[in-house]
Amino acid sequence: MGRIFFRSVVFIFVLVWACGVFTPIFSVSEEEEARLLEKALVESAVTPGQKQAIANYLKATAVAKRARANELRELAKLSRGEKFLQARVRKEKLFKMADSLDRQADRHETTLKEFQIESH
Predict the structure, then answer these.
(1) Residue 62, exposed/middle/buried by CB under 10 A (0-12, 13-18, 19+)?
(2) How many domains does the chain contain in total?
(3) Which residues, other chains included, contact 103 with Cβ-Cβ below 8 Å and sequence gap of 6+?
(4) Model confidence over 55-68: pLDDT tens digits?
């Protein structure tokens, strides 16, 4: 009886381990993780000082991400003497990165607006 129980426990453990290795159960994208952290920060702010610090952080982060997105777009426009296909791939990659940063900045600005409405 004890031996069968032990084998079934080991089997279940190995099965769960294999599932965890081959298919991540709790897979979260980097953007989603940042959004969740941001949400936790906003929800944890209680004092006026904490709220002001978070508002400053959101504003500064949005400005920095917009600036970096613009830099990436400018880099994409520059020619580095590459072959056509290499240049196109590089430009597409830079434009995708810039678009991602713009989406993140939009999210920061939206969160900031909602946060300011809630705190007043």
Answers:
(1) buried
(2) 1
(3) 31
(4) 999 999 999 999 99
